[in-house]
Amino acid sequence: MPRSNEKVQRLVLIGLLAALVFVFTYIGFDVPSPLGKAKVHMGNVMCLLGGLLFGGVPGGLAAGIGSGLFDLLDPAWAPEFWVTAINKFVMGFVAGVLVHKLPFSRHVNYWLAGVGGAVSYSTLYVLKNIIWGHFVSGFAWQVAVAETLTVKLPVTLTNALIAVVCSVLLAEALYPALHRAGLFAREM
Questions:
Q1: Are 164 and 111 in contact (CB under 8 A)?
Q2: DSSP per residue over 130-163, as a string?
Q3: What residue spans of 26-152 are helical by DSSP H?
Q4: Helix (H, G, I), strand (E, B) or coil at 26
Q5: Closest CA to 120 of 94, 98, 83, 158
Q6: Half-sphere exposure of residue 74, counting CA atoms within 13 Å on the CB side?
């Protein structure tokens, strides 16, 4: 395949994955919080899936772009869309890098990489909420920490659990067909 076709294929893949992240983030429900909305949703499933199947850069870009665009369309989240884009990029990137670097079987690597991506995002999300709550929203440190740990942390851990389980199961199901299609001839 010519090099230019590979670049086009990669761009289309990132765009498709970003669209899936965007759409799947709508599937869920909001959880009210004094520090701003929290949301249990399926978007993180796609963030991890992109990294697990296609590697760190494509998975990270798709996760960041899709999640950032979602936040831009909601007035409650629009001011911090760029933080979401960075944090979700890290999630997909970490999962994508780990799945290719870990020395175990593909199946074990999927689980470990999924957990690694979810933990990296959850950590960044919690830190962002504490910092944002204090410096931007004006809450005292104690309030920002307490609210984050009692409302935001349980929501992000729920999202992480759902994302890891669903993304790994989907990756296992999709891998054979994608492999037969030649999408894994080399790391993207």
A1: yes
A2: HHHHHHTS---HHHHHHHIIIIIHHHHHHHHHHH
A3: 43-54, 56-72, 81-101, 106-135, 141-147
A4: coil
A5: 94
A6: 18
Angle 106-135/43-54 helices, nearest 10 degrees?
A: 130
Question: Under 8 Å CB-to-CB from 170, ≥6 apart: which residues?
Answer: 45, 49
d(CA 185, CA 59): 17
Are the C-beta atoms of 52 and 59 separated by less than 8 Å? yes
What is the spatial distance between Cα 79 and Cα 97, in angstroms, rounded to a whole number?
29
* Measured distance CA(11)–CA(188) in Å, rounded: 11
Six-digit token string for 53: 């199947």
Q: CA geometry: angle at 17 spanning 51 and 163, to 5°? A: 55
* Angle at which helices 153-180 and 106-135 cross, to 10°: 140
Of 112, 72, 107, 108, nearest to 88 by C-alpha is 72
Q: Which helix (H) or strand (E) holds 179?
A: helix 153-180
Phi, psi at residue 39, to the nearest 5°? -145, 130
Does the pTM surpass 0.90? The reply is yes
pLDDT in tens, 126-181: 999 999 999 988 999 999 999 899 989 999 999 999 999 999 999 999 999 999 98
Q: Tell me: the pLDDT tens digits for 57-116?
A: 999 999 999 999 999 999 988 999 999 999 999 999 999 999 999 999 999 999 999 999
